[in-house]
Specification:
The chain is α/β, with parallel strands linked by helices. Helices cover 16% and strands 33% of the residues. It is globular, with a radius of gyration of 20 Å. The two termini are 29 Å apart. It binds FE2/S2 (inorganic) cluster.
Length: 312
């Protein structure tokens, strides 16, 4: 399927930092359907490719809805969507994919942390439509930071438990009661790393496959204090400058160098590249310690100092 051209037809502020975008196709086309947990990859106005979970019902969609948090240190995709994608903006959108599918189960526990609520909200709406038993635990800092809170309370009633920790790890929700006894239930969890680590810790004794994660992490790979550096490609002898606001992968793409990538957020492993020399700043979630010396994930990692030489 070719990429879609979609227009931002409306924006809704959900919290101070989270905005919902509704996208409709520019041309008269039937949008690809999708299942809960699916995401689209969007070319943001900055040129960065970013993945966002779809919130609406994907059975016969006429639009795609996503919610984007402006990451505090962002200079990349999320800032670009917040600042440079007003109503009317046309964006290139890749067809939906799903790496976090809902499987058949007797009952479900859905766990969301922060902006990780997007696929969880889509799943909960789907399970409600299907009249399946489910509960949602949704953890955020404060009520004001909680996207979709009114909609979710109205839709899910006492199936929804919202917990605020005020940013204090000591006040984090205690999940043990949900996990003490392994049950014939599927768990889906999307949120920041500490939440995922916590759920992995409390569910270690559960059978394989019952507890599923979408590793949400801020996908803004470029940070406020990043600087430009040079990357030399050993096989061609080409040198490409990576600007302070682009990833290596984006800079190579801009220079017409073909590379393979998928998540572009340091989690899937697709863009693993051999590092010949240089001082890398590893920012991925994939490389083992023993691989870090001579490999780099070019979608997120950078150079600490000086340039890098890659086996490309
Ligand atoms: S593209 Fe997935 S880790 Fe780089």
């Amino acid at each position: 399927m070719d990429d879609l051209k979609m227009r931002v037809v409306s924006r809704r502020a959900l919290t101070e930092h989270i905005c919902e975008f509704t996208l409709r196709p520019v041309e008269d086309v039937t949008l690809p359907t999708f299942e809960p947990g699916a995401h689209v990859t969007i070319e943001t106005p900055s040129g960065a490719m970013r993945r966002y979970s779809l919130i609406n019902d994907g059975a016969a969609p006429t639009e795609y809805r996503i919610a984007i948090k402006r990451e505090a240190e962002s200079r990349g995709g999320s800032a670009s969507m917040h600042d440079d994608a007003p109503d009317g903006t046309v964006l290139r959108v890749e067809a939906p994919e799903n790496s976090f599918p809902l499987e058949e189960a007797k009952e479900y526990l859905l766990i969301a942390g922060g902006i990780g609520v997007t696929p969880i909200y889509a799943m909960a709406q789907h399970l409600k439509r299907e009249d399946k038993p489910f509960n949602v635990v949704y953890c955020t800092r404060t009520r004001a930071d909680t996207a979709f809170i009114d909609d979710m309370e109205a839709a899910f009633g006492d199936k929804l438990l919202v917990h605020h920790d005020d940013g204090d790890p000591d006040q984090a929700y205690d999940f043990w009661d949900h996990f003490e006894e392994p049950r014939d239930m599927r768990v889906y969890c999307c949120g920041p790393q500490p939440l995922i680590d916590e759920i992995k810790a409390v569910s270690g004794h559960w059978p394989e496959g019952r507890v599923n994660f979408e590793d949400f992490k801020p996908v803004d790979v470029v940070r406020e204090d990043d600087t430009a550096f040079e990357v030399t490609l050993k096989k061609t002898g080409t040198t490409v400058t990576v600007p302070e606001d682009r990833s290596i992968l984006e800079a190579l793409r801009d220079a017409g160098v073909t590379t393979t990538s998928s998540c572009e957020s340091g989690t899937c492993g697709t863009c693993k590249t051999r590092l010949i020399s240089g001082d890398p700043d590893h920012r991925d979630m994939v490389l083992r310690d023993d691989e870090q010396e001579d490999h780099i994930m070019i979608c997120v990692s950078r150079a600490k100092e000086g340039g890098l030489v890659l086996d490309l």
